[in-house]
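Q: I'm writing up a methods section and want to include an example of the input and output format. Could you take the sequence below and give the corresponding predicted structure tokens, formatted cleanly so I can copy it straight into the document?
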Amino acid sequence: MLHALARFKDSHPDLQCHIIGEGADLGRFTALAENLGISGRVHFLGRRSGPKSPPRMQHCTVFVLPSRYEARVRLLEAMACGKPAIACHGQGIEEIIHHGENGWLIPV
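A: Here is the clean output for your methods example:
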């Protein structure tokens, strides 16, 4: 996701990435954003649960769920907001997203 943002940063100067969540890779992602020259466009929002997540989804353009272990409820919330969704194969996601029809599935 961060590499994609870096690739399109010049052609889409207003492109932003808001990352909800936290975990063991946060430091690595922060460093990667810095190394790619996009740290000013990447906003690490930390953990958001309950009523804090859906409002973010209502204002996003695309929802990406790159995790293998996340609850599918976040994906369903984003899709209920009418957002295009990208998620990883596995964990039953194929029951929700039919690749190319209502979203995109990518390898883990």
